[in-house]
Amino acid sequence: MLEIRNLSLSIPVGGEHILAVSDLSVSLKAGKVLALVGESGCGKSLTAQSLLRLGEFQGVNKETGDILLHGQSLFDVSSEALRKIRGGVISMIFQEPMTALNPVFTIGSQVLEVIHLHTDLDKSTAKQRALSLLADVGLQDGEALMQQYPDSLSGGMRQRVLIAMAMAGEPEFIIADEPTTALDVSVQKRIIALLRSLQGDKGLGMLLVTHDFGLVAEMADEVAVMYAGEIVEYASVTDIFDKPSHPYTKALMHCRPELTKDGKLAVIAGNVPSPGDWAQGCRFAPRCDLATATCSAAAVSLDAWQDGAHQARCLRVGES
Ligand SMILES: Nc1ncnc2c1ncn2[C@@H]1O[C@H](COP(=O)(O)OP(=O)(O)O)[C@@H](O)[C@H]1O
Ligand SMILES: [Mg+2]
Known about the structure:
With about 325 residues, the protein is α/β, with parallel strands linked by helices. The protein has 10 helices and 12 strands. It has helices at about 45-50, 80-90, 105-120, 125-135, 140-145, 155-165, 185-200, 215-220, 235-240, 245-255; strands at about 1-15, 15-30, 35, 60-70, 70-75, 90-95, 175, 205-210, 220-225, 230-235, 305, 310. The strands form 2 sheets. Strands 6-7-8-3-9-10-12-11 form an 8-stranded mixed sheet, sandwiched between helices. A 4-stranded antiparallel sheet has the order 2-1-4-5, with helices on one face. Helix 7 links the parallel strand 7 (about 175) and strand 8 (about 205-210). Helix 3 (about 105-120) crosses helix 4. Adenosine-5'-diphosphate (ADP) binds near residues 11, 40, 44 and 274.
């Protein structure tokens, strides 16, 4: 189990640090997929990166809370242990397969590098392992591919290589931050099918960051909806679709890329506030049709709703 507990993160803005993720708690379970959903700028990537303590390289600070891997704090481990955890226990797949590979090294040398980082295989066994990893992600003719440079691969092939690299250390958890957003629609489907079969076959716990509810329906077991740095709804995938409870969740579901009756694409009016500009009280209230003065008066807590496992942060929960 990989748990984020009451995590608050701040980002550097003009010489000071301001809160960008606040009091966030979620858990990733072995073999289960948790989808983290929300518009751009809600803090999804900051949250995803925190699981490998990656944001710290860009000045992101942990203000409160903890991240526990099988009960042990990731903030208590040595830097050596953290290096082994990265890729060996928790792997990350990024949004941009173009920039995540180094253009000056061959595919082979980059795949072999991660294998050597996580195993003590000798040279020829490592190469066999590289070929089998590439085959696992659907890349044919691995021998030839290993000699090539990232430039000569399509976006979909690069993402497959990155997925192979993420699997090299046989991780227990995969963090996939919008893994298909940068790819063509036809390629997206195949990459998702690949991720789903790897996740299922290897029983991986997965955090899937996305704003695509179609993808959520296809892959997730649980869903956390994030708005302005906090979770606003947290429930099983069935409950999210059967009884979405937060007005933001409902609004997000309605802006799936389908045309409404009048031929317009449904969108949520207004924008996600930047960190530092969050409304007092309910942060979604300024964009919410149901909001009353009470909603903006004081912070709203994330409370159990209905059967207890379904949580929502809304004073008018369930109303429409
Ligand atoms: N390293 C950073 N330094 C400063 N601001 C950042 C940094 N990372 C993210 N932010 C800001 O924090 C907010 C949340 O970002 P992010 O987690 O990337 O959102 P999402 O992934 O949901 O689109 C955004 O306003 C973004 O500009
Ligand atoms: Mg992001």
